[in-house]
Each structure stands twice: as C-alpha cells, then as structure tokens.
Design brief:
The complex is a heterodimer of chains A (273) and B (316). Helices cover 39% and strands 12% of the residues of chain A. Chain A is α/β, with parallel strands linked by helices and 273 residues long. Chain A has a five-stranded parallel beta sheet, sandwiched between helices. A two-stranded antiparallel ribbon of chain A has the order 4-5. In chain A, helix 1 packs across helix 3, helix 3 packs across helix 9 (213-224) and helix 5 packs parallel to helix 6. By secondary structure, chain B is α/β, with parallel strands linked by helices. Chain B has a seven-stranded mixed beta sheet with strand order 3-2-4-5-7-6-12, sandwiched between helices. A five-stranded mixed beta sheet of chain B has the order 9-11-10-13-14, with helices on both faces. Chain B has a two-stranded antiparallel sheet with strand order 1-8. The longest helix of chain B has 16 residues, at 299-314. The chains are: A alpha/beta (273), B alpha/beta (316).
Chain lengths: 273, 316
C-alpha cells in the first residue's frame, strides 16, 4: 500500500468538496483551489502542530492562505480536520454563512488570518513569525502564495522583511500553477524566474512537485532544519488538478461548474462516496 | 504664552511610558522613526521595535500579523503614507478582522510646511473615518495626546491617531485632565454659537472665542478629539442650545470633522453650519504659520465666520 494512501484519500475528498461547494455556491475559484489541495492537506494532516478543539491555542502553528480565493480547499480541509461541521461547506458564499467567499478569521474557526486581497499574506505571516521569536515560542508559520500573486509589489517588500529578520520559523509555498485570470502568467506579467528571485532576496529555496506528498513533507523538513533564513517552497502544480476538463484551463480560474459538469467531475474524482 | 509641544513629541514620550508598563506593545516604523518620535521607544526597547524600511503596505500588514498573536502594535509613519499608500492594507488586513493595531500617524495636514503637497495629508480623517471598525482620534495638544495614546491601548480594536509635526500650545492641565474615547470635551461654555474643533485648531478656536467675548459674543468651544465614533449627544445639545455651529479642522472640509458634524446635524438637529478647513485643495510648500494664514486656518478667520453665521441666524 502507498505510504501516502491516507493523505491521497483525503486529497480526493477535498477535491470533491471543492467542486461540490463551488457548484452549490454558483461562484468561486475551482482552478486555484484544486492546485493547492496537496499542500493544504499535508499542512493540516501531517505537518502543523494544531488542536482543532482549541483553534486559538497560542502555541499552535499558523497558516495564512495568502491566495485567499483558494478558500474552498482550506474550508474542506478544516472541516475534515474537525474545526467545524461539514454541513457548512454547502453554505459557502451564501447570506449569513460562516464560510465567506474569502477567509474570515473572525467568523470561521481555524482561520488564522483574513485574506483575499492579494499580496498581503506574507506580511501578516511575517508579523506572526516575528511575534513568535519575540516571545521565544517554537510555533511555526506557514503561508501559501499564488504565482500570479507575486506580481503584487507588497510580496517583495515582505520577502525582504522575512529575510532581513532571519525568519527561519516561517515557511512559504508558491502554488506555481502558471495561470492567472487573464492568461498564462508568463504572458500577463511574468514573475519568472520565481526561484531565482527568492534566492536573490535571501531565501532558502526548494523546488518540488506540489502534488507529491513525499516531496512536500521532505521540503518542509528541510525548512524546519534551516537556520537563519526563511524557506520558499516553489511547488509546481497543475491548475484545476484532478478534473480533466479543468486542468490547465485558464477559464476555470473563477467560474463555477454547472450541475452536469459537477457530476462529471465527481465521477472522475471517485464518485460522490 | 502657553508652552508649545508637538503632539508627535508627546506620542514618543507616551510610547516609552506605555512600553514600560505593557510588554505586549511593539512598535513598527517605516524609516521615519526620528521624525515620528518612535525612535524614543526604539532606544529604550530595541527588541520590541521593528524598522520595516520604506514599505508602508508591508508595515501595516505585518502589524496585523503581530496583533493576531496578542501583541499591541503601534505602526507609525507620516499620515499621507499611513492612510494613503497603505489604505487597503489598513482596510482589509486590520479593520476587517478588527485587529488590535494602533496607527499613530504624524505630519498630518499642511503644517508639515516646506515639504509641500506630496507630504501634506488633508484627507486622512476622511479615509480612516469611512472604514468600518475604525476608531479615529485627533488630539489637540501634548496632554491630550498622552491620554489618547493610553486610551487607544485600553481599547480593543483598530485606532487611527492623527498627530502633527508642529509645536502647538498646551491647552490642558495634565494634573486635571480626563479623557474618554468618543466623549468630547467642553473647553469653554457659551450660549450664542458653538465652535467645534479638532487637533491644533482647538487652541485657535479658543483664541477666537476669547476675541468674540470682547465683542459680547458668548461662543461655546468643543474639542471633538474622537471623530469616530463622534459625540452625537454633544453636537445635538450644542445645536439645540446655541443654534449655530462652526467646525474647524486642519483637514479637507470633505469627509473629516465638518462632514461628521454635518451628518449628525442634518439628521438630528438642522441648524446653520460653517465648515472651516481646507477647501478641496492640495497644500503647498511654505512656513507652517504662513500656510495656515493662506488657507484660512486662523483664529481671526474663525471669529469672522462666527460673526457671519450669527448674522445669518439673526436674519433668518
């Protein structure tokens, strides 16, 4: 049996949740949610020191979803991990729902930072990491950025801060799925070469396949053991991963599937079981 | 002549005092610590001071991150950068999650002086006042600044504190001063009209009231230090008891104190109102006192507008 069968099973379930919750909401961002599934699953099921019964536990590891539009992936993982009932997933984006279109730390247990406006998550993660160092706490801070998001100038202000303050308790991921709303990132406004840029900014940089649990866990281990500088894990991913007609299709950045498309996707993802 | 102290100086001192008492206070600055006076704190508590370099957007969101971990961050820079450059970070990363961040912005208004329009924030109150969850304070002198900084720490949530570069008269007695967020201060009683002022205009309003007194006009003067939530009760009371109101601020007449007062009056107690402030214009270079004259922010102008509004009231 595959060593990572358990994680792969969860990832499949998360993908089904993403497709179903966005279909039910009739809006949302399936492409970039599907590309981030393994990273977020690994964080909450294998990597982070957390207690879903105590979401505000002060010694917990923190996670900032800087690419807040991938919220459906995070919501599914949090529900699966027991932060809130799974029934909430189908109320996504509806009036009065706990699950807002983008993460809301005040309304949703398990969300460590409100995000959604791109470019800000690395800065808030830096603040958490600086606070941890100041208090001699050993918690770690994780943050996930989109590759299109790297076009925001604030990301690079924050990248300077992480390196300047030697935040080795901070690990960042870039979900490098290579597509943004208007097209391929290389055509819209290229942030390439992503790895070389972060190296030049003083980061420890690791490139991996972002859908491979073994590579994700190994990279995080290297990050844990790297002293004096932050680690950026550049995760090569496929936008829309797992649903054949969504993979690498820019049009699935921000549109919801129809009921028929949803059924087709669920079938590909192992049925509605 | 009263002693003169810049509100930024009082802020720098208050921060050190508070840093001593409260270990959760951290201070962030964007390469202006000598001007904003956070350098005092940096010297005393270097481990709790974070220079973020010239990157206001990053500074505001980093402060938000600190706040999620129980810290009480003060983020300081010039008002134009705190509220203009970093507006959306303040809105989305600080105010939306109602994080406990205190933004103490110095060098507000045209009394920045010689640096000119790019550095003279005349719309910061307007920007900050319109964000949900934000509390907005503009203290009048050094004594009130200290009290406002202490009150901001006691309050749980985002606070914007507008401070100035210029030395201004100390009008309050530190041994006998009470400050409550959202509760204006009656600086001088009066029954003929009410002058409501904020920041460095409070001293000028008081000066104007004393001039008017010599002419037999009894003007009430209110220090509306908290612009949001604004003290509705005091505004309505003043309208009902004095029948005319003049507002004074070193800020655009759009969106700041004048607007806040106008909103309350038009809904609750319509009376004649004159807004004194910067009239939808940018500032410019020059000596601060000359600029204040040029833009009509003097005690003579306040007295003059008070006489005019009384005339309107009589010929109604």
């Amino acid at each position: 049996m595959d060593k990572y069968q358990h994680l792969n099973d969860i990832a499949l379930k998360v993908r089904r949740d993403i497709v179903e919750s966005i279909t039910e909401a009739k809006s949302g961002h399936p492409g970039g949610s599907l590309s981030a599934v393994e990273i977020i699953t690994a964080l909450y099921f294998k990597i982070m020191r957390i207690n879903p019964k105590k979401p505000h536990w002060e010694d917990r590891d923190r996670f900032v979803l800087s690419k807040g539009h991938a919220a459906p992936a995070l919501y599914s993982v949090l529900a699966e991990r027991g932060y809130f009932p799974r029934e909430e997933l189908l109320k996504l984006r509806k009036i009065g729902a706990m699950l807002q279109g983008h993460p809301d730390m005040k309304g949703t247990p398990g969300i460590d930072m409100s995000t959604g406006s791109l470019g800000q998550g690395l800065s808030s993660a830096n603040g958490m990491a600086l606070a941890g160092k100041l208090d001699n706490k050993d918690y770690r801070v994780y943050v996930l950025l989109g590759d299109g998001e790297l076009e925001e100038g604030q990301v690079w202000e924050a990248a300077m801060t992480s390196a300047h303050y030697e935040l080795d308790n901070l690990t960042a991921f870039v979900d490098h799925n290579k597509l943004q709303i208007d097209g391929p990132i290389s055509e819209v406004m290229s942030p390439e070469p992503v790895d070389e840029k972060f190296k030049a900014f003083g980061w420890n940089v690791i490139s991996i396949n972002g859908h491979d649990f073994e590579q994700i866990l190994d990279a995080v281990n290297i990050a844990r053991n790297t002293k004096g500088r932050p680690t950026m894990i550049v995760a090569e991913t496929i936008k829309g991963k797992g649903v054949s007609f969504m993979e690498n299709q820019v049009g699935w950045h921000g549109s919801a599937p129809s009921r028929e498309q949803c059924e087709k996707a669920l079938l590909e993802l192992g049925g509605g079981k | 002549m009263a002693e003169k102290i810049a509100t930024r100086e009082a802020y720098g001192k208050a921060l050190v005092e508070l840093g001593e008492k409260n270990k959760n206070i951290v201070v962030l600055d964007a390469d202006l610590s000598k001007s904003t006076k956070t350098a005092n704190f940096a010297k005393k508590f270097p481990e709790r001071f974070f220079d973020m370099g010239i990157s206001e957007a990053d500074m505001m969101t980093t402060a938000a991150g600190f706040a999620t971990c129980g810290k009480i961050p003060f983020a300081s820079t010039f008002a134009i950068f705190a509220t203009g450059r970093a507006y959306e970070q303040v809105r989305n990363s600080i105010c939306y999650p109602k994080l406990n961040v205190k933004i103490a912005a110095t060098h507000s208004g045209i009394t920045v002086g010689e640096d000119g329009a790019t550095h003279q924030s005349v719309e910061d109150l307007s920007l900050m006042r319109s964000i949900p969850n934000m509390c907005v304070i503009c203290p009048a002198d050094a004594v009130e600044t200290r009290a406002a900084i202490f009150a901001a720490v006691d309050y749980k949530g985002p606070v914007y504190i507008r401070l100035g570069r210029l030395s201004v008269p100390v009008i309050y007695d530190e041994n006998n001063f009470k400050f409550e967020l959202g509760k204006s201060i009656l600086v001088k009683g009066g029954k003929d009209l009410t002058i409501i002022a904020v920041g460095i205009m409070v001293a000028k309003a008081l000066e104007a009231a004393l001039k008017l007194k010599e002419e037999g006009i009894d003007a009430r003067v209110i220090d509306m230090h908290t612009i949001k939530p604004v003290d509705k009760e005091a505004i309505v009371k003043a309208a009902k008891e004095t029948g005319a109101i003049v507002t004074c601020e070193e800020h655009s007449i759009i969106g700041g104190l004048g607007s806040a007062v106008a909103e309350v009056l038009s809904e609750e107690a319509p009376v004649f109102l004159k807004r004194i402030g910067i009239e939808d214009k940018f500032g410019q270079s020059g000596a601060p006192d000359k600029l204040m004259e040029l833009y009509g922010l003097t005690s003579d102008r306040i007295a003059d507008e008070s006489r005019k509004i009384l005339k309107r009231l009589k010929t109604k």
